[in-house]
Amino acid sequence: MVESNYDILGIVDGSTEKEIRDAFRRLALQFHSDKGGENEQFIKIKQAYEDLKIGKKYPDSDYDKLRNSRVYSSESEEDIKRKNQILGQQLSKEMQTAEEWAAALNRSNSTASRLFGSKTLGEIELERKANGALSIKGNFMAGSLTYDGPIIMQGNISSPSWTEEFRTKIHLTKGDFKFIDPLENKYKIENGAEIIVDNGNVVIGNIFGRKYKVQDPDGKVGVFQTREHRTRIIAPNGKIIAENAVNTVFLDADSIIILNMEDDVIIRAREILVYGSKITYDSIIELKKDGFVRFFEKFSVQGLSNDAKIKLENGKVIPLFDIKTKKIKDLADEFVPDKENYDKNATMVGGGFTITYDMLDNLSKKPTKPQKSGWGSKFGFSKK
User: CATH code for 5-59?
Assistant: First the structure.
């Protein structure tokens, strides 16, 4: 038996508007994530309430959801592009309205919540909290939003792949941008979206870009052009904490904590902490002066692709192949500095190792006098 929207709210068929509203409020208090409830159940309850307000007795079937999908499908690529262009334009207008609404609440230091979008476009809920934070619930699909304060996000962030005009861009002039439990909820940022945080931190989950080939516009057989939608996360004065960055991604911050980098990922920071064991396929670590890269996995070096590189702020580029063949890992494993120099050099961290900017800058320099043995002397260390 198909569950009706009345069943979902726990009321009888034909209940009054007040009974429907009271049932929704009661269940919202129980299942809202702010109260420790289950997010999926709250979404289901909220949808049932919205449906009943317009007289819809049963929720959408899987077929209805597919038919009403935000992304149209067609045999014609031009038809797909045209229809999605319209959706992108409409969503961008909604986000402009949302930005103005949130800014007005900020100026008056007021709290409120409001839905933006539509059933067809996809709805998201914005709420300004008493502490000035802006809560966003739902999937952010297109358009730009600037906010003068922190943002708390529950949902995925994507960007239209058919145009740069309506590219998704979220800009915080102050405060942090955070996903709610990003690893547990599997939230992701993808397809060329951009997040800029001027003075704050970014806490997110997986990040994906997009790179693909298209037929040569002049119609040359067997000739293709590569197009990319690089997803960008920028926090120049703060920290980025992320899980996996995959396929055409750029991260820029003072400090970056990341699990793995796979396939054309560029990260730029002064402090870089890698907790996983993969840096693959043309990825680049751009290390700022006086910084360091810290690998927490003891054998991380084995997962470093020979195609990946570390680029220093002075322009010097060191292939990770050189680091592996010069056995910097062995240096970190075997050299145990004395207590006085331990904190200063910080070469031993857990089971992993640290490579400093100075170590890399001096990597290819010839010693001023013959060295009898050891990589320790090459980097200015000595065993006692």
Answer: 1.10.287.110
